[in-house]
Automatic annotation (TrEMBL):
SUPFAM superfamilies: AraD/HMP-PK domain-like. It is an enzyme of class 5 (isomerase). Its EC number is 5.1.3.4. GO terms for biological process: pentose catabolic process. GO terms for cellular component: cytosol. Pfam families: Aldolase_II (PF00596). This is L-ribulose 5-phosphate 4-epimerase. One of its GO terms (molecular function) is aldehyde-lyase activity. Residues 10-184 form the Class II aldolase/adducin N-terminal domain. Keywords: Isomerase, Lyase, Metal-binding.
Length: 217
């Protein structure tokens, strides 16, 4: 195993622990993957593992083109969905899937989730929201959508986000959950209409005048 793969395994395991410690997944929930460009391979979390105690060696390496396991382990059942995202969005080099309760609750309730913070405008934009589906149907939906947005919320389930690095894909989920909590807090105070989204003009202004400083991490 080369040094890059070792580092990738460590980062991916750390991200899963971070998701758990931040309450963005339950102990068996969520999954993540990242591309190992040198090897034309993908590292992905194993199926049904305790994410709190996930070790670097538990991660499963699969062939990027065929999705076949290289070595040992059983990949996440969402492998097809991850491959569909990479297939649809060439800028995606990492995918993170989590179950952030506020974001998923707000979107499942039918709230038209907009853009609420400068960070969201810069890194994520407006997430797509789709009805609950799984397996092949979910992979097909992702194939159709992943080229046109940065994150997809699946009602009654969770969110998929992707990016050029695993940390950026992870950050998108934190940013969306943070915005969702703000929406709920404001709406509780004002009886449902407390928080407006940022206008399209403001989003354009943010995109024009600010650059995320952590893009390359
Ligand atoms: Zn899930």
């Amino acid at each position: 195993m080369n040094h890059r793969e070792q580092l990738a395994r460590q980062t991916l395991a750390d991200v899963m622990k971070k998701l758990y410690s931040r309450g963005l997944i339950s102990v068996y929930g969520g999954n993540a993957s990242m591309v190992l460009s040198d090897d034309n391979a993908l590292l992905i979390t194993p199926s049904g593992f305790n994410k709190e105690s996930l070790k670097e060696e538990d991660l499963v390496k699969v062939d990027f083109a065929s999705g076949k396991v290289l070595g040992e382990g059983k990949p996440s059942s969402e492998l097809r969905t991850h491959l569909a995202i990479y297939g649809a969005n060439k800028e995606a080099k990492a995918v993170v899937h989590a179950h952030p309760t506020t974001l998923v609750g707000v979107c499942t309730a039918g709230y038209d989730f907009g853009v609420y913070t400068p960070e969201q405008a810069l890194l994520v934009g407006k997430p797509m929201v789709i009805n609950f589906c799984m397996g092949e149907e979910l992979a097909e939906r992702m194939s159709a959508l992943a080229g046109t947005c940065q994150a997809v919320v699946v009602k009654n389930h969770g969110v998929f986000a992707w990016g050029p690095t695993i940390m950026e894909a992870y950050a998108k989920i934190e940013i969306l959950e943070e915005a969702a909590k703000m929406v709920v807090a404001g709406n509780v105070i004002m009886g449902g209409l407390g928080v407006s989204s940022i206008s399209d003009e403001q989003v354009l202004d943010i995109l024009k005048n600010y650059r995320p400083s952590h893009k390359s991490q």
